[in-house]
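Table 4 source record.
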Amino acid sequence: MRHNKKFNHLGRTAPHRSAMLANMATSLIMHKRITTTLAKAKALKTYVEPLITRSKEDTTNSRRVVFRYLQDKFAVTELFQTVAPKVADRPGGYTRVIKLGSRLGDAAQIAFIELVDFDDNMAKTAGKAVKKTRRSRKSTAAQAETVETTTAEAPKTEEKATEVEASQVETAEQNAAE
């Protein structure tokens, strides 16, 4: 039974678990994305998110607290210099866990965990999101009028384009004559 079991012990002793989570957090901070089992990814999420929140305030005390958990000065530097400025305006939810399926050897659920603001593919799709507004349907008569106006405007734009091309040809001939 799971009476009063607040977190997943991952089948390890406490020092082994803390060392493993510290190593995984260091790898996540340095590489921005790691692949692991789903249970470890979920445990890592609860381990690393308070550290990222702590890194928003760059003080000596917060650096010491984060170093106490990570035990890697390069990861602490990376966290405070590159990760913290990107997540400064985010109120939480700095990591994303995406399931990848099961591993062939032992059928363990595999997932990758990544820092949200460092995923280029998601940033491209988020930038293209356009606000859509609901509009009522036009009547068939209104649609026919818009079709007629666009077809009537099309030859005018073609005439303008040919006039522009003709003027460009004339200027090129004048420059060649000079």
